Amino acid sequence: PQNYLQQLTEAQKTAAETTYMVDNILAAFTGNLEAEYQKEASQRWRANYNLTLGRLLALKVRAYEYNSACAQLKQLGTGDVETKSNHWIFQPSRKMGSGAGTRKLAAEAERLLKRAIDDAPNTPWGLLAQRDLSIPMGFEVVQKFVPPPKPAEQRAAAAANAKRQVQLAADNAKKKAEPKQPAAPAPPPGWST
Q: N or C: which terminus of the chain carries fewer CB neighbours within 10 A?
């Protein structure tokens, strides 16, 4: 409970950095590129355009969604973290929680990736677009409460473990210190036993 807000803030910084980098890359996609796309004769260029822009938009949506999920968790009180929710699993989800603008970006990303699949099936572009579409762009946070071990139980377990270690060490030392029994001498040749 003491540092969960700081951990979530650090996670949000990662999402902000990702968004910043993607926005810098997307700055190269200026003007009416869709009109240029329709004039382009190269199937390779068209497939690459669909895949690249679709993946960039999907990455931006995922960063927004991750940031939104972290922000929602920050609204938990420290009392909830101590008693109700202290274990969070972020899972991909079809539900989007960060707003209409993000849903619009997700729809455009999906359109471009589907176009890459349709226009370039069974190519690296189509296969990569298919893989990207197979992972939802939203996040769902599954909350659980895992009770922390009680201090008395921890001390008892540590003491029992230390006692076992001491006993094992003593047993090993005793085995090393015991004199070995010499082997019985072999009977002289010709004697029967």
A: C
